[in-house]
Amino acid sequence: MSQSTMGAFLLPEGFAPPPLVALVREGSIVGEAGRYAMRTRAERRARRATPYVGRVPARLADPVLLVPGFLAGDTSLAFMGRTLRAQGFRTYRSTMRANIGCTLGAAGQLEARLESIAARRGTRVQVVGHSLGGMLARGVAVRRPDLVSGIITMGSPMMAPGAHHGVLTRSVDVLIRLSRAGLPGLMSEDCVAGDCARQSFEESRLPLAPDIGFTAIYSRRDGIVDWRACIDPAAEPVEVTASHVGMAVDPRVIDHVTSALRRRTVDSVVEVDRGVSA
Questions:
Q1: 72 touches 129 (CB < 8 A)
Q2: Which terminus of the chain faces fewer neighbouring Cβ atoms within 10 Å, N or C?
Q3: Residue 59: helix, strand or coil by DSSP?
Q4: pTM of the model
Q5: Averaged over 18-44, what is the pLDDT?
């Protein structure tokens, strides 16, 4: 989303793309993935030492939908999903092979997926979104509060979608050129500068229903987006020390996601007991 292709409204005053050298910070993904591997080995040893009847955690109430970031697919959140399931959460994939299409189209796909999960489980859904996935989650939560009980965003620049590193600018430009050439299913110019972009941006800033939980996870070490753009005034902000990409695998971030999901699950149970919602 360079200045030549991106709508100026996507980069409000007060925000800026990270400098070129910021991309170096994303190299910490190696250590973050290693940290996840070490945690997994330790948990595997602990499970082996636990009697079989105590290994399976009780299923928690709200189902959880995981939404990947720009250029990524469901596999990018596979590690997080595995950890959440081990903690008793029932997780679902977004069914996105790659989050590279029209923003409104992706939001429509996400809404349909939420409808399917809510109908199957008979309850609203918590949504965890990484980067662009979090922005999509927030927009859908505004439109369909009947489907969403809470959202957790990770490195999602909702306040300024255009405040991202030049490497993403070039990626978007490639998608736009391919779309102009007639390749279907990709971001078009309208998705970054036209009505599609404006509608998506405006929806991601509208107020949420008061009973929808909202946690925004951000990192000052984010080398891809301006971390300040990830702090929505409507959210409970949680600062972590991780790279942008590494948020999907760093066990310390996953711990924060788990805590936020558990808090919302407890709130949902209390609401049902009080007869407020079901």
A1: no
A2: C
A3: coil
A4: 0.88
A5: 92
CB atoms within 10 A of CB 249: 23
pLDDT tens-digit map of 35-54: 999 999 988 888 777 675 55
Q: Which two tokens stand for residue 28?
A: 């910490």
- Crossing angle of helices 103-121 and 132-143, rounded to 10°: 60
Q: Quote the CA–CA distance of 48 and 45 in Å, as a whole number.
A: 5
Q: DSSP label at 71?
A: T
Instruction: Please provide the DSSP assignment of 184-239 as one string.
Output: TTS--THHHHSHHHHHHHHHTTSPPPTTSEEEEEEETT-SSB-GGGG--TTSEEEE
pLDDT score of 85 more than 80:
yes
Phi, psi of 153 (to 5 degrees): -105, 145
Q: Three-state DSSP class for 240?
A: strand
Task: Quickly tell me which residue has 């800026």 as its tokens.
Answer: 16
